[in-house]
Amino acid sequence: MIGDSQTLVFSHLLFEAEFQGQKRQIITEAKYCPGLAAHNFSDPRGRLHETLLRALMGDCLLDRENRALYQFQSPQAGLLNLLAGRSKASPVLVFFCGSADLVNVFQRHLGLENDFYLPDQETLLAAFPESSAQQVFPFETARLYLQDLIQPLYRGLKKLQEMGFDQIYLHDLVPQTSDDHEFSLIYQYQCPARTRIKAQLLMNQLLREMAQALGIRFLEIWPKVTHQNRRIESFALDSIHLNKQAAFLSFETLWNEMCSALNAQYQPEPADFPDLIETVNELAILWSQWAHTQKYSKILEDALQRADLFKLIARRQVEWEAQLESFVTVLHALVQAHYARGDLTQISTLLTQYAALVRFHRPLARPESLPALKLQKSIGEEVVLPARFDPAQTDLIFWATLQGIPIRIQPRGSA
């Protein structure tokens, strides 16, 4: 949970949840970012707010180059994740942002004298007295003003997606006190409850639309903690924040969304999964022996007979990547067999198909590891390889193929 002070209630809370019949215990972490608001979430160049960057880096979620640390296989990344007690999976980030933009900017401008029209406001705000504002702005004026105000939040969340974070959630604004006197004592200005609630409803609608535009999930508890859009006091911690009972509702909503996403993509391991792994291990040994004795035709024939196995691994490689290191050895032998036939197209197709698995188990195939390959004059606009296969060139083949760099085999007898 990361963002404004609404996150603090989630600090080290323990929840019990269930998925696929298995109970799990989950601890939430709160990362409060002082000064963070939707309107300063990122600057025009896309740089994130300093307190947000510090929170992500301090929790070992970002490296020094502002990349999602969980994606990288370097020893340093592995050590940091180990020390932080983190798995390789993408972290779940739930953002709380937008409340400060209302109380410090939008509502302050409205005050007692100004208001705006909200569609269906007679029904939505029936529990609140009519406004005595002298000027009422059209709905589109208020909507466009807030859209422009929170644009840095959209830009920043999109930047986080580009950094590699793919489990981002956006929480709705939660209700604050509806007591006008209490509100004025806290914020040192007056704005009637009807106008404040109206602003929160509009902001939540805009945040929901933003989440949809970004392809992230929107967590909404407002209907559960309000009655006629007025805060239910049993959920109040103080005038501004909700309590742990409300935090449970937030987590429950988050967990349901996560399970919904998992159910859409989850496929259980087949009952014969251990046999599959054993088959891959045996295949790695057998094909390595055939490659060593240059029995390339046997490798290619066997590959055709095992087409179903290869298709299954291609579909599930990300889920099973940790158990499939031997399959990269299988790919090594198969690349060697295609190399012997001069079939570079098959090599490209093969390595592209299993790119996720290769990158996971072959760090040298990552671009940042290129200097470790000790290449001489092979790299340029293309990679030139000797006619006779050299096993030492495998990492180079993997790297060049995954980077889209053309590979050419030097004709036999040429200098």
Write up this protein:
- The protein has 415 residues and is an alpha/beta fold.
- It has 2 domains: 2-265, no CATH class; 273-409, no CATH class.
- 48% of the residues lie in helices and 11% in strands.
- The chain contains 17 helices and 13 strands.
- The chain has helices at residues 50-58, 75-83, 99-110, 121-124, 139-149, 151-163, 180-187, 193-214, 222-225, 244-265, 273-292, 296-305, 307-320, 325-340, 344-353, 355-361, 394-402; strands at residues 2-3, 13-19, 22-28, 31-32, 93-96, 114-116, 135-137, 168-171, 217-219, 226-227, 230-231, 383-385, 407-409.
- The strands form 5 sheets. A 5-stranded parallel β-sheet has the order 4-1-5-8-9, with helices on both faces. A two-stranded antiparallel sheet has the order 2-3.
- β12, α17 and β13 (407-409) form a beta-alpha-beta unit.
- It starts with a strand and ends in a 6-residue tail after the last strand.
- Mean pLDDT is 84; it is low at 72-84 and 364-379.
Largest sheet: 5 strands, parallel
Main structural class: alpha/beta
Shape: elongated
Report the sheet-strand fraction: 5-15%
What Rg is obtained from the alpha carbons, in whole angstroms? 28 Å
Order of helices and strands: EEEEHHEHEHEHHEHHEHEEHHHHHHHEHE
Mean pLDDT: 84
Total beta strands: 13
Helix content: 40-55%
